[in-house]
Write a structure and sequence with these properties.
This protein is an all-alpha fold and 486 residues long. The protein has 14 helices and no strands.
């Protein structure tokens, strides 16, 4: 789920009983901050990769996280208010139960002959006891012990008639047998944590029910205890498995920490090596996020250790690229100077000398190292634009010169000295020859642009030039044949 959806779910829960939504809130909180930490780590890694100064780096301000934190604060306030109210209720319940115990004690120690009246009063006290809610946890065991003691004393010591005694025992037996059935049914529940919670409640109810016939007490308690043992064992096994998984997670995380610790940062001396190392670190971070919690006492410690090594890596990477940026800046300065020279030469009409100068500029361009990626395209386009402009003007000038030559040739051909007339085939061959010749010249002029990285393009262009020259030779031969035929 996305953070906004988690925030909306938290907002929807706040209208409910804070004690009932505790687990849901904690789960939403865990999911939300897992996503939030991942985003913050990704932002930090991106900042490091963008070569920012990590000493001045500040976490990204997340408005959604601020809203989520405010909702959590509302929840905490509600919990505090509910806790205060709950504590007051527990204290009040304790006073009420202590008062009932005093009355029960008096009945248990009374020697009155009015059995029916005492029994009725005892039942009323038992009914009232069941309506009272929970008391502070430290007092529960003692209260239940006194409650059971006074009940047993009352039923054992007070001389009541057998009919009333047997009726009460039978009613209590039915209630306790029902609790045994509920406890046995808990073994079918998949959620063992919930089953254990319900079992504790059943034990509280058991303690509040009066005694059964003396000869059945050990038997039914043994059944209830047996059903409880099944749940307690499963509950213990569940937490044993959970702890084993947490220990396994700790070992996996320790292995990742070891890989981060063993990274030899001194051996990373170029872009390729840093890129490969960055991919490895990011893969380790991604794997870390797939591993669950380690034991509580180790979880934060191992996380801080892993984070310290990742921080060390990205800080070293930042330092490396800071030095590289200085080199890139110097290369940019040199290439800008070459651009300025190319732009100053591009309008020259001294075709031969200026062509040599452009070829020299192109050679120097290849000797200068790389520049920052965000500048490389622009400065390259400026340089090639100036070169292209000059060679296009040179080509156009040569074309104009050639056309003038053809015009003069045509005029000379009109003289009694050049009587033959070019055939259509010869003119076509001449035009074809000139087109191929112009194309070849352009490629020869631009061949200096290609660096070692463009070796395949350079090879292709050289092959094309050789093919053009071969074709030109073939056309010259055909023109010679036509001239000879005349």
């Amino acid at each position: 789920m996305e953070k906004v959806e988690l925030m909306e779910q938290l907002k929807g829960l706040l209208g409910n009983d804070v004690n009932e939504i505790k687990e849901q809130v904690e789960e939403l909180k865990s999911q939300f901050y897992r996503i939030y930490r991942q985003e913050q780590e990704a932002a930090r890694a991106k900042a490091a990769e963008m070569q920012e100064d990590m000493a001045e780096y500040k976490p990204v301000v997340d408005e959604i996280e601020q809203n989520f934190r405010e909702l959590l604060q509302i929840y905490k306030t509600q919990r505090a208010e509910a806790a205060a109210k709950r504590e007051a209720e527990l204290k009040d319940n304790l006073l009420r139960k202590e008062h009932i115990l005093e009355l029960m004690k008096a009945l248990a120690e009374s020697d009155t002959a009015d059995v029916a009246a005492n029994l009725q009063q005892m039942r009323e006290l038992q009914s009232e006891w069941k309506t009272i809610g929970q008391v502070p946890a430290p007092e529960v065991a003692n209260l239940q012990k006194q409650y059971a003691q006074y009940q047993e004393q009352f039923y054992d010591l007070v001389k009541i008639n057998n009919e009333l005694r047997e009726y009460d025992f039978k009613k209590n037996l039915e209630q306790k047998m029902a609790l045994i059935a509920e406890a046995e049914a808990l073994s079918d529940k998949n959620d063992i944590v919930e089953a254990n919670r319900v079992l504790q409640k059943l034990h509280e109810e058991w303690a509040e029910i009066g005694p059964v016939a003396r000869e059945l007490r050990e038997e039914i308690w043994a059944k209830f205890k047996e059903a409880s043992t099944v749940i307690n064992k499963r509950h213990q096994e569940y937490f044993d498995q959970l702890h084993a998984k947490e220990q396994e997670n700790l070992e996996k995380k320790e292995a990742l920490v070891a890989q981060m610790r063993d990274l030899d940062l001194e051996a990373l001396t170029n872009n390729k090596q840093w890129d490969e190392a960055t991919e490895k670190v990011q893969a380790l971070q991604a794997e870390w996020r797939t591993i669950g919690f380690a034991p509580k006492k180790n979880n934060q410690i191992i996380y801080e250790e892993f984070r310290s090594y990742t921080n060390r890596f990205f800080e070293a990477k930042t330092a490396f690229y800071k030095g590289l940026r200085d080199e890139l800046s110097e290369n940019l300065r040199k290439k800008k100077q070459l651009v300025e020279k190319a732009e100053a030469l591009k309008t020259s009409t001294d075709w031969r000398e200026t062509s040599d100068k452009f070829i020299e500029l192109q050679k120097k361009w290849k000797e200068v190292g790389p520049v920052a990626r965000k500048y490389s395209d622009d400065v390259w386009k400026q340089f090639t634009a100036a070169c292209d402009y000059f060679f296009e003007q040179k080509k156009a000038a040569r074309k104009a010169d050639h056309e003038a030559y053809l015009q003069r040739q045509a005029e000379r051909e009109k003289q009694p000295k050049k009587e033959f007339v070019l055939t259509d085939d010869r003119r076509k061959l001449v035009r074809m020859y000139e087109a191929i010749q112009a194309e070849t010249k352009t490629m020869e002029n631009n061949i200096g642009f290609f660096s070692g990285k463009a070796s395949s393009l350079l090879k292709g262009m050289k092959t094309k030039i050789e093919a053009n020259k071969k074709r030109m030779a073939e056309i010259e031969a055909k023109i010679a044949e036509l001239d000879a035929a005349e």
